[in-house]
Amino acid sequence: MHAASAESPPVMNPAPPQARTLRKLFLTIYLRGRSSRGLKLKTAPKSVGRKLALALGAYTLFGLFTLQFVVNHQPLFALAIYAHSMTFIFLGMFVSSSAGEVLFNKDEADILMHRPITTKDLLWSKIRVMIQISLWLAGALNLIAFVVGVYTVDGTILFPFIHIISTVLEALFCTGCVVLTYQLCLRWFGRERLDSLMTMTQVVVAVAMVMAGQLLPRMMFQMSKSGLLQFNARHWWLGLLPPAWFAGLDDTVAAHVNAGSWFLAGIGLLATVLVVWLAFVKLAESYGAGLQSIGEMVSRPKTRSGSQRRWTEMMTAVPPVKWFSPISRAGFLLTTAYLFRDRDVKLRVFPGIAPMLIMPFIFVFQDTRVMEGFGVAFSSGFLAMVPLLTLDLLQYSQQWQASDIFRAAPMAGPAELCSGARRAVLWVLGVPSLILVGFIVWVVHHHVADLVLFLPGIMLMPVMSLVPAALGRGVPLSLPNEEIKSAGRAMKMMVVMFVAMGVSGAAAAAYKFGYFWWMILGETVILLPVYFGLVAFVSRRRWKPLE
Amino acid sequence: MISLNQLTKRFGQQIAVEALTLEIPAGQIVGFLGPNGAGKSTTLKMLTGMIEPTGGSAKICGFDLKTQPVEVKRNVGFVPESGAVFESLSGLEYLEMIAALYGIPQDAARIRIRQFLTFFDLSFDTLTDKLLGAYSKGMRRKVVITAALLHNPKVVFFDEPLDGLDANAAVGFKALIQTLAREGKTIVYSSHILDVVERVCDRVIIIDKGKLLLDGKPDELVAQHNSGTLEHLFTQLTGGAELERRAEDFAKTFR
Q: In chain A, which residue's Cα lies nearest the Cα of B11?
């Protein structure tokens, strides 16, 4: 034990209040991520901060879409409801995906629960950080709309001011709803089921938000002949949607003072006050109990139902999984187990692939006279991308350090492990979703011949599922969650969607003009060497250095 | 200093800690022992206010655990077995954050942090430069121990504190807890390294399946049971006597 190193300059700051210390802590953790994976202080915040700045930039660009409300002479209410819908969806997804991790973190219990902090201070610090980040996102999303609103047919200079207020209220409402859901789950279903309920709630909320993002604009707006969106205000159910309440507030102050807008604004204000009071004041006491239950979960032994265990055992005991190599079978079991048991993986994977699973339904239910088979072809194209996206998302885990065991095992490379993971995803997600959508196509279209349009997607699926492993990104659960925080994900998703649409479009066109089987032949000729080339390439891959 | 009265914790049907009654005076180093799943960590988590007891009561420094939990926490330091830290903070950021939670001004906190750095032979640059995620297990453990002692608590609970520490640090740590006890602090030390417990602790408490099995001075207990060492006594009491034969059987499977 040595003498002290050189003295640092004296610092004369008093201790900051606990609440401010906690807020600073949770904001830092959000910006840097919970696991730093050996990063240095100088580089970590920069890289995450840059990604956040990129995401905020992308959100701002997304706001450019509101310009067409001016070009198309739409009323302020239409712009406001669109802006609030998008804000609601993006904030809902952000809050629901981060609330579980922020509100009920297991590691945090060991660090903070024995410190002299009240649960109220802890809860409020977390909520304030979530609202702060929500407001950054909402601000970026609405930045262009603040200006655009003034130039709509009935907009006034008051719009930016009232839209700021209504957006803040919406952020409070959105965060309050998610926190309230957790508190109610805790109160109604008890501590024992909190963990699984949290997962289910988050998955359902995130998937619902993705669905709402895809469906609502299609229901509220119609494409005009000039290719611009026309708002359709005739739907009675608009009044039931929270974005309409906040749009009503904008409309009341910045456009028309009418009974309808006042009514919507009133509901919005009342609902926000009620939700905020219930979530952050009335039920805040349950939060302490929730945190304790997390501490108890760490202490108590985890049990698993016999049926769950038998199910996973059965999966690996039946042919052809039984005939896989032991390593491939291990990869299969690990992937299947995490896909259906691990809260963190489920929360990432299912909302992540939700757009790919929802788009086929939208295409299938579109007007068949207009689509002429395009819907079916597009469905299969999108479904072909599900394994690729799933495998990409499966790389990340809170338990990534456990993947060191793969490197310690006598395997030259990750090929067999990746193969097991790939087969698991194809079997438990890819094939069942194809069968389900195929069945729906048959029910909706009553035309079995249409199902041949699934062929290009079916052929593409195994090839695309090899891509993550070929890019060296196919080892399941081997990277920390923080590495997924990237604006590049949205770009990746767009590229994947373009590929899916390209192949499906070609298939649908070939079907329409009578060249479908030629197209299948062409696809086979291209895909077969690509498939075997990728398999050979992946099998030659060696472990990447750990740095 | 610590007073437990019929302290009980149940998880559903399972009893983790059953009616534990104890008195621990100030300045004592108590070894808290038991096999895996005996209820040691659950007891420590109850005494640090992390989980709520199902029954019974406990007082620490005169404060009731149930009615005055924040006061109890202000007087208690805890090194959890997990050694969990916020990995994306630097060591200094983490320790200053902990100090702020106890209301210690930043300048006073830095002075104390420097004292611990000196004790653990760590440089200030290491503490400021790297995020905790990049620390070795031993370095992280040193930060966790520092975080538990920074506010000068009257009672300190250690759950496997030597896990990850190198030999020099472990020797230094043993000297540290003896010094702390001489200054009147109460130390509750849970560990599986029984020879260290035997050398360091004034008193040993052994629990199994949530129940108190033995409580007394290590040398007196060893003498009473004719065990030779605390390790032998522990294995006799907790059913570990068969282990050598089981190890032989296990080795046979490789032959």
A: A300
